[in-house]
Design goal:
It is a single chain. The chain is an all-alpha fold. It folds into 2 domains: 1-55, Arc Repressor Mutant, subunit A (Orthogonal Bundle), CATH 1.10.10; 73-196, Tetracycline Repressor, domain 2 (Orthogonal Bundle), CATH 1.10.357.10. Helices cover 74% and strands 0% of the residues. The chain has 10 helices and no strands. Helix 1 (7-23) packs across helix 4, helix 5 (81-95) runs antiparallel to helix 10 (180-196) and helix 9 (155-176) packs antiparallel against helix 10 (180-196). The mean pLDDT is 95.
Length: 201
């Protein structure tokens, strides 16, 4: 059962998700977040002791939100684990139809800026990304057992590779202010997965 979040706290969390993906950690101030959320600084400090505590709350909120999104995605209903993996990539490509800040990853954005300066944020981002990879790896392991039982790769290593391609694709989307390069990267990723998980004749 989901915990009920106070409306002002939820506004602050949602504002943080948007601002961090738009302009990064360092460029986002508490004043920016309060303005976007439509709440006072007093309300901010009622819910959070610091910007870092808010960011940690936003990471947790992001992880819960994205877990629900992917658990409810259409590809999850597919019976074949290979189809689910390829469906996951297709789903990520479909998300690229949104504006750049809407499809980029909060965790990837944060960890690039804070991995040395804010270890607690780095650890929270690592946990979120690794947990997502763990869920992918479950399908990858089933697919490997059926389609490539003699393969010398592990499900976990391919899960990390998938996420590395995604994070790199997001960086290029930001650099070019467009999704087409990112979309082509995911098409190549799909071809690679089809190659290492060859369909039965």
């Amino acid at each position: 059962m989901n915990e009920i979040i106070h409306p002002s706290r939820m506004k602050l969390l949602e504002a943080t998700l948007g601002l961090i993906r738009e302009q990064g950690y360092a460029a986002t101030t508490v004043e920016d977040i309060c303005r976007r959320a439509g709440v006072s600084k007093g309300s901010f400090f009622h819910h959070f002791k610091s910007k870092e505590e808010l960011i940690l709350g936003a990471v947790e909120h992001w992880n819960q939100f994205t877990t629900e999104v992917f658990e409810q995605a259409p590809y999850q209903s597919l019976a074949d684990p290979r189809d689910r993996i390829l469906g996951y990539v297709d789903f990520r490509m479909a998300i690229l139809d949104f504006e750049v800040p809407e499809f980029t990853c909060l965790l990837g954005t944060l960890v690039q800026e804070t991995y040395q300066s804010h270890p607690s944020i780095r650890e929270a981002c690592d946990f979120g990304m690794s947990s997502h990879i763990g869920r992918l790896a479950a399908d990858l392991e089933q697919a490997r057992a059926h389609y490539a039982p003699d393969a010398d790769w592990t499900a976990e290593s391919v899960g990390y590779f998938i996420q590395a391609v995604l994070q790199g694709a997001f960086i290029f989307a930001k650099a070019k202010l467009a999704a087409e390069t990112a979309r082509e990267n995911l098409r190549h990723l799909r071809r690679y997965l089809e190659m290492i998980l060859p369909a039965e004749c």
